[in-house]
Write a structure and sequence with these properties.
Layout (H helix, E strand, L loop, with lengths): L1 E8 L7 H11 L7 E6 L4 E7 L13 E2 L5 E9 L3 H9 L9 H12 L9 E9 L4 E6 L8 E5 L2 E5 L2 H5 L11 H10 L12 E3 L4 E6 L2 E6 L14 H11 L7 E4 L4 H11 L5 E7 L7 H11 L2 E7 L1 H5 L2 H7 L9 H12 L4 E3 L4 H4 L9 H8 L3 H13 L8 H5 L3 H8 L5 H8 L9 H7 L8 H29 L4 E3 L5 H7 L4 H4 L7 H10 L2 H4 L10 H6 L3 H9 L3 H4 L4 H13 L5 H17 L7
Parallel strand pairs: 13-14, 13-16, 14-15, 16-17
Antiparallel strand pairs: 1-3, 1-9, 2-3, 4-5, 5-6, 6-7, 7-11, 8-9, 8-10, 11-12
Helix pairs in contact: 6-7, 6-20, 7-22, 11-19, 16-19, 25-27
Length: 617
């Protein structure tokens, strides 16, 4: 796992590239502390790389990596799990590999098969391949966006990086203003949706897409789209979990697993123990109502893992906030990133690679909000006048509510459900703090709205909301895990988002996964068959941090001072009276505004930390 950055100019100009890229290397050292490198053609293209050595620890794996013919150069961040699918064919073609890295296999696979090979790559990745002869650049992200790739593009050229602060502080973009649409999207989702960037002319490349830069312009192409249709499969759930975990255990450095005590990470840990000895990790708190480390320890005892538990305090979490801001070079407002930072630091003391259980809820309808979709969809198919009349009747007669304002304000299932993915309070109160607030429709929502679906088909309706979970909600989780772990030079892999698992999930319908008001039943049944029902089906406590309390007490004065004195460049987009109102309502307990206050506070800290226009790259 590594970090990459680069610039392709539309006019010959690499004069300042080396100093810029050296600063990039310095500020993403945590993504690759083992080695680094820069290469430039001294005309119009330069690229940089920092390496976290995982496979082939020798210098043969260093980058930027050049093809033996000298025509191509690649920088690559990630892991490729199915290199054996390509390597023998390449050897038969006469390729003599100098390393055992997946980078070198990827390089020659791209040379041989071009863009056509991308959809066949199984891994987590972001890469840049430059063709010196044709002066073309290929940039790509993995299917579901597990690894980052930020882009800045205008008439001067295109810049890419694993970190957003590199893009926005380059001279091509550091005088650009705020993109209002992206700002509104941030206050809806807690992150800026893909295809957009908070600073104009910048964006996070959409997952499942790649960019071709040629003749001083760029084109974005899609190579993968998580489907709404259902496909057949020859695999069963146990075999596919085992296969995905096994192929992600390849490593030349110590490896372990996150094991929270929940179903997904525990199942991944179980599958890993079928391959070899495993170290597992969890953090806990000294609060019986929140602590699940005891459950993780019971699973660890059953699986015979070498288990490590660290009990943390509230002060530990509070003291992590500054590191949390430093780790996220883009605005990010999910408070759960703080315990993820703590866990990653703890795990990195023992291993360099960890497997997590992320993805199970999205692929197999694991969230409580999934359970009401069919009832909500039935309401959304009804006439709006009927719904309005029923809503008023229930309100006036104080009857049990079956109709909510969100049903009246939504235009169909897609519009309704993507708003369900908003951070708490966004759809109601964001307009109170933001001037001219409008609910945006990000890239993947727009794409879905252009399609025709049979919303009366329950299977199709549930597949639609699963796709929205994958394309929108999952992205916040992936940002959180990558930035928090890589800040501590820890590579995190996600077997439940392996290509084979993604393909397998599309053969599952909600009828097999959502039964008797319980989600991801297929995963739970499998884990229960290997352990016991009492452990698997016990009520989940949910590790959480007391952000609500902090914003009323410990952090209140600091937050109040920051929000009452927003940077001038930010202040113009906000209503001062609205900010004061939500702070006071939260402080006095009239209304809970944790997510919105945290989003505004972290935005302010992001701006002063990563985009203050004083320390330019």
């Amino acid at each position: 796992m590594c970090g990459i950055a680069g610039i392709i100019h539309y006019k010959n100009n690499t004069e300042n590239d080396i100093s810029f890229l050296n600063e990039c290397i310095k500020t993403m050292h945590h993504r690759g502390p083992d080695s680094n490198g820069i290469w430039s053609n001294d005309k119009n293209y330069s690229t940089a790389f920092v390496r976290l050595a995982i496979r082939d620890l020798s210098a043969n794996g260093n980058q930027p990596m050049h093809s033996s013919c000298g025509r191509y150069v690649i920088t690559f961040n990630g892991e490729i799990y199915n290199t054996n699918d390509f390597k023998q064919t390449l050897i038969n073609d006469g390729i003599k590999f100098k390393s055992t890295t997946d980078t070198e296999v990827l390089l020659y696979a791209l040379i041989k098969w071009g863009e056509n090979i991308i959809e066949k790559i199984n891994g987590i990745f972001a890469f840049a391949l430059y063709d010196k002869q044709e002066n073309t650049l290929l940039l790509c992200r993995d299917r579901l966006g597990i690894k980052p790739l930020y882009i800045g593009a205008n008439s001067n050229g295109l810049i890419y990086s694993s970190q957003y602060n590199h893009i926005i502080n380059h001279t091509y973009f550091n005088n650009n203003g705020i993109d209002v649409k992206a700002l509104h999207g941030y206050f809806c989702f807690g992150y800026v949706p893909e295809g957009e960037g908070l600073i104009k002319e910048t964006f996070l490349l959409q997952h499942g897409h790649y960019i071709v830069v040629k003749n001083n312009q760029y084109t974005i192409k899609k190579y993968y789209d998580y489907p709404v249709t259902t496909h057949s499969t020859t695999f069963d759930i146990e075999n596919i979990v085992q296969k995905c975990v096994k192929q992600q255990l390849v490593s030349d450095v110590p490896l372990g697993t996150f094991m929270s005590g929940g179903v997904d990470s525990t199942l991944v840990t179980y599958a890993a123990t079928k391959v070899g000895d495993v170290q597992s990790f969890t953090i806990g708190v000294d609060d019986a109502h929140l602590n699940e480390s005891d459950t993780a320890e019971q699973f660890a005892h059953l699986f015979k893992t070498k288990h490590h538990t660290e009990l943390i305090t509230e002060n530990t979490l509070l003291h992590t906030i500054q590191d949390n801001i430093a780790a996220f070079s883009e605005p990010f407002a999910d408070p759960s990133s703080i315990p993820t930072m703590v866990l990653s630091k703890f795990v990195r003391n023992k291993v360099t690679v960890a497997l997590s259980g992320d993805g199970g809820d999205e692929l197999f309808w694991g969230y409580p909000r999934n359970r009401t979709v069919l009832a909500d969809n039935a309401l959304l198919q009804k006439n709006k006048l009927f719904l309005s009349a029923k809503y008023l009747t229930e309100k006036l007669l104080n009857r049990e509510r079956t109709i909510a304002q969100r049903h009246l304000q939504s235009n169909g299932l897609i519009d309704y459900y993507y708003k369900r993915l908003f951070i708490a309070g966004a759809s109601v109160y964001a307009k109170d703090i933001l001037k001219d607030f409008t609910i945006p429709k990000p890239y993947f929502v727009k794409e879905m709205l252009q399609n025709t679906f049979d919303f009366n088909n329950n299977v199709e309706a549930m597949n639609i909301i699963r796709k929205l979970e994958v394309d929108l909600h999952l992205q916040r989780i992936l940002i959180k895990v990558d930035r928090a772990s890589m800040f501590h030079s820890l590579e995190v892999r996600v077997p439940l988002l392996d290509n084979d698992m993604i393909d397998f999930s599309t053969a599952m319908t909600f009828k097999e996964c959502l039964i008797n008001n319980t989600g991801k039943v297929n995963l739970k049944k499998l884990l229960a068959s290997k352990t016991n029902d009492d452990l698997v089906y016990k009520p989940k406590k949910g590790f959480d941090i007391p952000m609500n309390k902090w914003l009323k007490e410990t952090l209140y004065k600091e937050v109040e001072e920051k929000l009452y004195n927003l940077p001038t460049e930010l202040k113009i987009y906000f209503k001062e009276s609205g900010i004061k109102k939500i702070l006071q309502e939260h402080k006095t307990g009239i209304r809970e505004h944790t997510w919105l206050i945290w989003a505004l506070y972290t935005l302010t800290l992001w701006y002063t930390t990563h985009f203050n226009k004083k320390s330019k790259l």
